[in-house]
Amino acid sequence: MASTSFLLLHVLVMFSLANIVFSDLSDDFYDDICPQALPTIKRVVEDAISQERRMGASLLRLHFHDCFVNGCDASILLDQTSTIDSEKTARANNNSARGFEVIDRIKSEVDKVCGRPVISCADILAVAARDSVVALHGPTWEVELGRRDSTTASRTTANNDIPTPLMDLPALIDNFKKQGLDEEDLVALSGGHTLGFAQCFTFRNRIYNETNNIDSTFASQRQANCPRSGGDSNLASLDPTSALFDSKYFSNLVSKKGLLHSDQALFSGGETDELVKTYSTNLRTFSKDFAKSMIKMGNIKPLTGNEGQIRIDCRRVN
Q1: pTM for this structure?
Q2: Where are the transmembrane segments (predicted)?
Q3: Which of 162, 185, 222, 268 could form a disulfide with 207 if both were Cys (CB 3.0 to 4.6 A apart)?
Q4: Which pLDDT score is estimated for 280?
Q5: Which mean pLDDT values do the consecutive 10-residue runs of the chain (318 residues) have?
Q6: Is 289 in contact with 188 (CB distance < 8 Å)?
């Protein structure tokens, strides 16, 4: 009887600890501290997108690239210093990641309306990503908040952990699994490519050298703006409606018109084919799963409590 009681107590304690860890982030974290914080982020994001529609995809990508490097801690925002190995110069971000000035503006305006620095740069990235999707007619979700900002960055980890455009399906599955994300998360989050553009150098090999699983007319069309040499930064849209959250990204994959090798890998005879088909014809299901996976991704190793800091300037450690 004593051992049974001890076991029950142990289970209850572990359950309580699990709840404490899970509740580190909450969707009402700033309600009492600064109720104007989230509306201010939304206003600045909408203004930035109204000036440049592409900015929505850029802000979404910043959150993604942040979370895949040691968790969602705003490390991607830190500039290079003698002690900070900036992730901005990593292969996936160098001359590619953008929107930093929008984050700076959000931080400035939020701190002004709150009267002091109370919202973390990591939370700003998470909320700005959600607000960008909503502004481009995508789904909304309750962003869990309370992250704190890192005091370090790692270009090496960024180079190793951010998925590349050349990955095949097994590599993508392993890459996402390392972050605690499953195959549904992989397909749903890849659907973020319903927004935005890619540079020529990221898809040149696909349109010139791949013969399987690529529509020949599509390849020829992309070659017109992406020569075999030069023009590395020339842009092509990741789906036909690059400033609208819809399911055409997945329709493209079914038609063998994925721009990146890593896009088309999701529909290449593997275990993710059926989910791609489902999303290609059901925007409601894709939107629901995307929102769920964004919440899950936003919970990758956040700094909370007394960990990290609330940066005064998102580009540098206090």
Answers
A1: 0.91
A2: none
A3: 222
A4: 98
A5: 46 40 78 96 98 97 98 98 97 96 98 97 98 98 98 98 98 98 98 98 98 96 97 97 97 98 98 98 98 98 96 98
A6: yes
Q: What is the rounded distance in angstroms from the CA atom of residue 65 to the CA atom of residue 203? A: 19
Same domain? 46 vs 157: yes
235-237 and 197-199 as β-strands: parallel, antiparallel, unpaired? antiparallel
Q: What is the 3-state secondary structure (H, E, C) of 239-286?
A: CCCCECCCCHHHHHHHCCCCCCHHHHHHHCCCCCHHHHHHHHHCHHHH
Q: Which of 139, 153, 147, 125 is nearest to 64 (CA)?
A: 125
> From CA 146, how far away is CA 28, in angstroms rounded?
9
Separation of alpha carbons 108 and 94, rounded Å: 25
Count of the separate structural domains present in the chain: 2
In the chain, the amino acid numbered 91 is R
Q: What angle do CA 140, 192, 195 make, to 5 degrees?
A: 95
- Sign of the CA dihedral 302, 179, 187, 47? positive
Active site residues: 65
Q: How far is CA 296 from CA 178, 283, 300, in A?
A: 13, 20, 7
Residue 31 confidence (pLDDT): 94
Whether 47 and 143 share a structural domain:
yes
